[in-house]
Amino acid sequence: MSTTSSRGGSVTATVLYQEKVSKLPRGWVEGDDLWLTLPDLAAASGWELKPEGVCRGETCVPVPDARLASFLHEESGERWFNVSEFARLIDQPFARDEAHYVWYFGPPSWEWQSRVGSRQAPDFTLPDLAGKPHSLSELRGKKVLLACWASW
Predict the structure, then answer these.
(1) What's the rounded Cα separation, in Å, for the pair 131 and 127?
(2) Pairing of strands 13-17, 53-56
């Protein structure tokens, strides 16, 4: 493994991990996968490799032994971690801009699934055409059709 991409150039990866943007001086790209050194993984995402798994704060995700080789690789004394494969494991949406070496990682599944599971929109208040404010909570228990529009 090397720190060059399949295009033959050095990879400077920009990682947008939820709310944080990190410009990392080196990375390894293989297909759709982004590999980072363990220190860069921690700096960009807050995830760290520990004996119990990949951990961020109080949350630890065990890495299945059968898939360990798809997550970790060691070369020249450095350990590299496949961030994209980890995103697949935790059902975390991600996208990349191949031309600019930019990756975006959204929230893991346990965060977005809990939001969708309630099937209730958050309460908000907006004025009608006459300027009278109305809150969504006023309509609880009734069928509501929300039409959203933006001028941009």
Answers:
(1) 5
(2) unpaired
Q: What is the pLDDT of residues 121-148, one digit of tens each?
A: 778 888 888 999 989 999 888 888 878 7
| Per-residue tokens: 67 | 């898939």
* Cα 17–Cα 21–Cα 22 angle in degrees, nearest 5: 100
pLDDT for residue 37 is more than 90: yes
Q: Which DSSP string do the residues of 45-86 spell out, in sequence order?
A: HS-EEETTEEEETTEEEPPPGGGHHHHEEEETTEEEEEHHHH
Q: Tell me: the pLDDT tens digits for 77-90? A: 899 999 999 999 99
